[in-house]
Amino acid sequence: MTRLLKTLLAISLVIPSLSQAQDVSLTTTNWEPFYGENLDQGGFISALVSASFKASGYQSEIEFTQWKEAMAQVKSGEKEVLMGAYYSDERAQNYHVSIPIYSVLTGVIKHQKLDLEFYSSFEMLNQYKIGKMEGSVISQSFDAFPFESIQGYSGAEEGLQALASDNINLYADNLSVVKSIAGKMGMNPSELSMVQPPIEKNDLYIMVSKNIPNGEKIRDDFNAGFIQIQSQGIYQEILEEFNQN
Q: Is the pTM of this model over 0.90?
């Protein structure tokens, strides 16, 4: 039995039994290697979130869909929790935002055939055709810039296909995510790189619907559970279990 499993079993002894636990519905998109329906336990971010909810007496179930659809489902209250979202002021108006759970670098990704290694301003990037996931946040400054040619895609795979076929020159996302998808598509991940510098170091959050009666309590309980798994060493054990330390 792994240390992680032993620790999670220990948590179950100090919270309500599974039959008494409150169910909570989560949704997100496939964003490997951080989370995805084909990953063990849904990926390490899913494992962190599940352990945090379990520590506060919740049984969580996650469904993977397109990102824009996931946001809409949680905003309307059809689902309760959106997992793995970047912060924006607009999102804070529609969702109860948790404390940060992890951080990732976001930037513009290019194929090696594009002669661009560095940029000094968004004006410099404005000469290129840029893609991003539809409904995604990149950074406050990037999202506010009036790019002349920026295209939204339903998922990262569609964006990468556009990059491979030269429909766009750059794709805004996390490099690990893009390389993971590239490998599954038969592309060579080593031919992809992030134009320097990265645009932003973004925190990941869960965001709870404001259109459910107990949304704020779910958010607060999650925060308490997350702090608990950190203080008990479970957070670090999960990262080590997934080779993320």
A: no
